[in-house]
Design goal:
It is a single chain. The chain has two helices and ten strands; from the N terminus they run H-E-E-E-E-E-H-E-E-E-E-E. By secondary structure, the chain is mostly beta strands. The protein has one domain. Strand 1 and strand 2 form a beta hairpin. The longest helix has 8 residues. The radius of gyration is 18 Å and the shape is globular.
């Protein structure tokens, strides 16, 4: 039988609980992307000529009740704005509440095939154009039991619409921008 003190006591973290925030827990309420986490150059009438910040998020797909194979949809967002929360990143990547237009990228891959060249879909955050390109991942750590990390390069050379994007990125995931669909 439990004593009242045991029932009312807050749960203690597991010995192998994820670490990341100042109290040792992953921080789902804040994003941090200092300038320099991305170095992208872009040429299109709706874009800034350079982007210096990457906010990395994604979606675990398949497996579980879906019956489909497990996968991951990497969803980085490139901007020059400092966006302190996942909600701010989501609003900005959707075209609102931003001083500048950013670049939204979508890359899908299966576990075991993270590194290398992947086809990518890109659009501006105002949704005035969409183009295809490639993302080459050189480092990838899933944001599961830790914050996770992604590094690589991006290349777009599209004639319709006329968009050119090149550059590199290297940063941790914003864990508040990572979700799972089972």
């Amino acid at each position: 039988m439990s004593t009242p003190a045991q029932v009312d006591a807050p749960p203690s973290p597991a010995i192998d609980a994820p670490r990341g925030g100042p109290d040792g827990q992953l921080d789902y309420d804040h994003c941090d992307s200092p300038a320099g986490t991305a170095v992208l150059t872009a040429a299109h009438q709706d874009l800034q000529p350079q982007y210096a910040r990457m906010y990395a998020g994604g979606l675990f797909t398949g497996g579980g009740d879906s019956g489909g194979p497990p996968g991951f949809e990497l969803r980085p967002y490139f901007t020059n704005d400092s966006l302190p929360t996942p909600a701010a990143v989501i609003n900005c990547s959707g075209g609102s509440d931003c001083a500048t237009v950013g670049i939204v990228v979508a890359v899908d891959f299966d576990p075991g095939n993270e590194l290398g060249v992947h086809p990518a879909q890109l659009r501006d955050s105002a949704s005035t154009w969409q183009a295809t390109g490639t993302v080459t991942l050189t480092d990838f750590v899933y944001p599961e039991q830790a914050v996770g990390h992604v590094a690589g390069s991006i290349h777009v050379d599209s004639t319709t619409p006329l968009v050119t994007i090149d550059g590199t990125f290297d940063h941790a995931f914003c864990v508040g921008l990572v979700a799972a669909v089972l």
